[in-house]
Amino acid sequence: MSRMTVNGRPVEYLMDEDTPLLWALRDASNLTGTKYGCGNGDCGACMVHVDGVALRACLITIAEAEGRFVTTIEGLSRDRSHPLQQAMVAEQAIQCGFCTPGIVMAAAALLADNPAPDEAAIKAAIPNICRCGVYPRLIRAVERAGR
Ligand code: FES
Ligand code: FES
């Protein structure tokens, strides 16, 4: 069992403590915006915020998330109009969209720390893999959101 706060609500997961946070969010909380891509920390599709830091939910167990504040893509903006989401649309930085939630979470954490990141900072903070190759548009979107 593990207790934490997810998108502002207290949650208790009655699962094995070694369960990756990714599966608790998706299977027990039905927060399916957090994607399963690789399951071993490579792709970034499962990125969430834990106490404000962007982390891969496939690499954290629910025991490690005990007592912490978790935010998923569903909790990033109550009306789904986070400036970053608007910028992603404006720059057409979404193709199939599978990688998009993880990218948005990584980028939102970056912008919270650095509202005007340059290209090098964006590339360093967003290591996510996008099989559709939206990388140039993604960089423009993050720059736009930071303005
Ligand atoms: Fe977590 Fe790929 S599913 S990094
Ligand atoms: Fe398709 Fe990134 S938009 S994987």
UniProtKB/TrEMBL annotation:
Keywords: 2Fe-2S, Iron, Iron-sulfur, Metal-binding, Oxidoreductase. Residues 1-76 form the 2Fe-2S ferredoxin-type domain. The keyword Iron-sulfur applies. GO terms for molecular function: 2 iron, 2 sulfur cluster binding; metal ion binding; oxidoreductase activity. This is 2Fe-2S iron-sulfur cluster binding domain-containing protein. It comes from Qipengyuania pelagi. The lineage of its organism: Bacteria, Pseudomonadati, Pseudomonadota, Alphaproteobacteria, Sphingomonadales.
